[in-house]
């Protein structure tokens, strides 16, 4: 496998600006949450760019015409608990009919290995395009385990959407799940000795929920 990372970086100026606000250590829970939701919304706009459309006949106040609507692609959003919940509303605001699944996964602080503790998915998971959301892609262990679990449960079409990634994490997803497109707002420099992304933004879950 080549060393080149296969990743889509959505670095729109609005996203970069909001992410910089989130990174700052003095940004409080309320602003952190709001900014994450706004970025998730903007990223959803970008990752749905190739969603299929179909023509329908409508009547405006002026005349009849043919116009485009979404072709009814079935979508599911799967936040990786807890921190993924911070991106959920942003996606659902843009795709209101999306069903929501939940995967509970935390990273053991000593081993840095993912521990699964919850999974509840829509019944027709195999028919949906699933957008898996988690703000942080560090070692890649949690997201890779979540994607494996979703495939075991029948998922056939998966996209991973994260806020900040370390190169190490992207590489793991590329190797373990070459079929899964990865979208991020930023690729940071590296992981530190505790597995935190540098410069990153700290522990996303703690900052979203105020559990620091
Ligand atoms: O790529 P990895 O090395 O697996 O690290 C990333 C994971 O760590 C964080 O979750 P955390 O374990 O802090 O759980 P939380 O969301 O409940 O805070 C984050 O939200 C990812 O799920
Ligand atoms: O930097 C990191 C790494 C893992 N999880 C986080 O929330 N932040
Ligand atoms: Mg956490």
UniProtKB/TrEMBL annotation:
Cofactor: Mg(2+)
EC number assigned by the record: 2.4.2.9
Listed pathway(s): Pyrimidine metabolism; UMP biosynthesis via salvage pathway; UMP from uracil: step 1/1
Cellular component, GO annotation: cytoplasm
Catalytic activity: UMP + diphosphate = 5-phospho-alpha-D-ribose 1-diphosphate + uracil
EC top class, as a word: transferase
Regulation: Allosterically activated by GTP.
Biological process annotations from GO: UMP salvage; uracil salvage
Keywords for this protein: Allosteric enzyme, Glycosyltransferase, GTP-binding, Magnesium, Nucleotide-binding, Transferase
Any Pfam family the entry gives: UPRTase
Phosphoribosyltransferase domain location: 9-211
Function: Catalyzes the conversion of uracil and 5-phospho-alpha-D-ribose 1-diphosphate (PRPP) to UMP and diphosphate.
Name the record gives this protein: Uracil phosphoribosyltransferase
Lineage, broadest ranks: Bacteria, Bacillati, Bacillota, Negativicutes, Selenomonadales
Protein encoded by which gene: upp
